Amino acid sequence: MATPMKIDFVSDVSCPWCVVGLKSLESALSRLQGQVSAEMHFQPFELNPGMVAEGEEIGEHLAKKYGSTPEQRERNSEAIRARGEQVGFTFHMEKRSRIYNTFDAHRLLHWAGIEGRQQALKHALFEAYFTEGKNPGKHDLLIDLAGKVGLDRARAEAILSSDEFADAVRERERFYLDQGIHSVPAVIINDRHLIQGGQPSEVFEQALRQIAATGSQQAD
């Protein structure tokens, strides 16, 4: 019998290592099919909560935030591209020229969770930004992506043209910050076990097996 697990995946739409982490986690879960039954929840985290709507040029932003040089950024981009290839995701780093505000994307993801389409929308957002270089804060794109994953476009438009779910998203963001989460991805299993970073799938698989075994022993 499969061991049920609640998995909270705390991440931002503009975080490349969150893509790697999610793909690795999903790969681990696929290998544990029949042994682990996961209930996934995607929780909001903004790497740049004060980002202006029009965004900021990525080189300028990274230099200002981390003090990174063009050479360091190039090496990091290549490392991310290579890890993406390993997990089956295409990073077109040359298309991603700006960092954008992601708050409205998180509001839409919150609604998608209610509608049971959260994971599909998360993947669509990652692909739109990291593969296609599109602005994940642009309402037209968010509405198109909602429709693409089977959500109601008119409802998505109504949410984005209002402040709906803004308080709920901010409350979730504050909660995880208060819990000490200051970098993402952060994967929290059964509200107790924390795995941080874009880990290889083997790391997730080993952790999930151990947690499942512990849960089975406690159930016995």
Q: What would the keywords be for this entry?
A:
disordered C terminus; 220 residues; alpha+beta; four-stranded mixed beta sheet
- Main structural class: alpha+beta
The share of residues in extended strands comes to 5-15%
- Number of distinct beta strands: 6
CATH topology: Glutaredoxin
Number of helices: 9
- How many domain regions? 1
Indicate the CATH class.
Answer: Alpha Beta
Shape verdict: globular
**Average of the residue pLDDT scores:** 95
Assembly level: single chain
Structure description:
The chain is α+β, with helices and mostly antiparallel strands. The chain is built from nine helices and six strands; from the N terminus they run E-H-E-E-H-H-E-H-H-H-H-H-E-E-H. The strands form two sheets. The chain has a four-stranded mixed sheet with strand order 2-1-5-6.
Q: In brief, what are we looking at here?
A:
This protein has helices spanning 16-31, 58-66, 70-87, 103-115, 118-131, 139-148, 153-160, 166-178, 201-219, and strands spanning 3-11, 36-44, 56-57, 98-99, 186-189, 193-196. The protein is of the alpha+beta class and 220 residues long. It has one domain: Glutaredoxin (3-Layer(aba) Sandwich).
How are the SSEs placed, and which strands pair?
Elements: E1 3-11, H1 16-31, E2 36-44, E3 56-57, H2 58-66, H3 70-87, E4 98-99, H4 103-115, H5 118-131, H6 139-148, H7 153-160, H8 166-178, E5 186-189, E6 193-196, H9 201-219
Parallel strand pairs: 1-2
Antiparallel strand pairs: 1-5, 3-4, 5-6
